[in-house]
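Re: the pair you flagged

First of the two:
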Amino acid sequence: MMTENENITGTSFFDRPNVKLDTIPVANGIPFGIESMNNSALGIGGAYAAWGRSIDNAQLPEFVGDRLGEALLDTEIMNLSELGFVSRHHIPQLSDADHLALELEVGTRVLNEAISANGWKAEDVEGVLIGMSGPVSNDYVAQIAGRAGIREEALKVSVHKACDGSMGALHLALNPELGVPGQINVAEELAGKKVLVGGIEGLSRFTSHARDKNALQLFGNGAGVIGVVPGENMKLMVGKSFENFDREGLLQVRMYYPHSREMAPGKSLLEVSQAAPNHIRVAGMMHEPADGFPVVMAGLMGMVKLFVRSGVEVVSDVFREYSELMSRLDTGKQIDVGIVHHANYKINLLKGKQLLKEGVQFPMPWLLSDFGNVSAASCIIAFLRQLQSIQPGNHVMFDGFGAGTYYDVMAVSMG
């Protein structure tokens, strides 16, 4: 399981030796860094990135104070190193046009780098599935796919399930049981095809008008995209998608995407719609802040209450199904590694301890100290940072969870 202070270092992402640095020509120039990964034995590669100024824990209170227009009190400054984070990336205040130009360029570069890391050509990609908490435009996925040279006929899927977005996207690509009647069954459509899956989160834009002092300290920009061939180099064994509306508003998030905001007994919180002929939108209902702000958090204990109890239940259910499957197959295989959303280190540590009480145990490394909480991008970045250690035939547990609340947990076989 996760151990105390594992892999929590003071290195900035921009200082990593294999990160390619550049400046995106928007406004006065936005720093951009990207790193690609590839595991040829698995046939899987990808890329992850950050953009904006790299701000460490010591610099963060001044930055947040400038955003708020008032200094943080000593009692309001979070001990972020204990929460697993030492730096994160933020952009200055920009116009709407500059925000769009910046994130289109970021998304295009990440898709292109992921395509290259897999040794593919853009015209070979037949699906692009991206999780985003607050998209900069409703057609963002279609726009970046087109700019990256991906064919218009390729299937695009935008997934808005907050921090669970990329895992919701991956689950859709792997699990045909998630198909919605009357809609394209994404997993059946993409089986055996070259597919890009990831999360792209411009959270510095998203939180720029927030007044929540915890959110302004926890979140930052990040993006990660991997290339998979569903059913070939990544095969679903068991998986569960779960939703449980956050009635208490422990993590309130504004929906910057189309959603009816209707709730009815027995009705899913997810609305699946056809955004365009080759573009599907999966939009999750959120408990929105009453004052119109982007995000309002109930504090760290609220996050523990929100995610740990249901999260342990969902992971335990999937682990139990996985163990039963291994028994039926008469194999001694076990989960080799867990890729868990990096909400914060203490949440994941507590979750690991609670899972242990349920008899569930597998490694859950902490891998994102230099990003902060990057929502839907975090599981993909964590997977890419673990990629070189994964061997063909290894079993990986993906554990996504996010505001709303939504959970997607999968056990997959690699290579």
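Second of the two:
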Amino acid sequence: MLLLGGLFLLIYVLVYAGALIAEVMIRSDATVAYYLRVALNDLIKALPWATLGTAAWIAIAYYFHQSIIDAVTGGEAITRQQEPRLYNLLENLCISRGITMPKLKIMDSPALNAFATGLNQRQYAVTVTTGLLTALNDQEIEAVLGHELTHIRNGDVRMMVIAMIIAGVVGFFGELFFRLFTNMAWGGWGGGWSSRRSSSSDSDRKGSGGGAIVIIIIAVVLIVLAWLLSQWVKLALSRTREYLADAGSVELTKNPDAMISALRKIEGRGELPGATSAVMELCVDNPREGFADLFATHPSVESRIQALVKFAGGRDPGPLALPETDALPGTQTEPTPETGAPPPLPSGPWGGSQPTPADPPRQGPWSDPARDSPGPSSGWSSGPWGPH
């Protein structure tokens, strides 16, 4: 709450920086002390309006942020009849802890990711990608759902949405003031200021014109500092909550290995094409990284897994490959050299091809009649997940 309060105060820092720039535009021949004093008076007068404007911004986001996120990601609400497997897993977790079940949504994307949104019980929703449903088994999906439910239980979703809204205000007005200053410096005001300064005496230029330059530098520093601090606060909130959500998932499912294997499969495969950075910050994993990880919104998957191994007794299988699902969307399989045709279509959620009695024997230098022939003597043992 202290961090959110500090984030809100950054809005007033931006208002003060804007007042400094406005006073320099109005009068360019004053001293530094004059600009600081007059800008402070402007800030005091603007406090009620800045507060009302920020409150209106938050209110709009409060009621419409879910619609905006759905429009960006394409998430659609589903029922038990449409997706019984996913619906039952989430419902069982909610019943086991007496949690009100959030809305369940699916996003059509090959990426492996999920995220929770909402500011109250009526708005809470968990969105899962189709790629996640395809690549993960039931226990791993349950672990991911437990992760998102923990975000909801702990109030993380509400806190992060509010933090992103306030940081969005800071970023919006910071960019607005910066563009205003840029246009002012390179536009007509800069020329007028130069001509006024050139017509004044040397003593005036030393005492007054320099004051305007100093004030402009102070304003720019305040704008940049406010933006950097808003991002730092937002990231500080996000990083700490991810560890707690992983622990909460283990508490709900009693299965640390499932959470670890889910993270291993999601690792590096969670990029949502077209999603904004605000949406990616809500996801189980955000592969987008800032400069030298200083602006990374999530702890690394490696550090999260190490915490689960150390404190929850989980076992790390190491990086996991996903055959078939690792191929990029739209890529085609090349024909096999033996027949000139693509290999058999995958069957089952793991993409494994399962030989049947109707399949012709395999031919080629690598074929093994004892293994490839169907029947009891075949070296294949079939099951619900394909051949083993």
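DSSP finds twelve helices and four strands in the chain.

-B.
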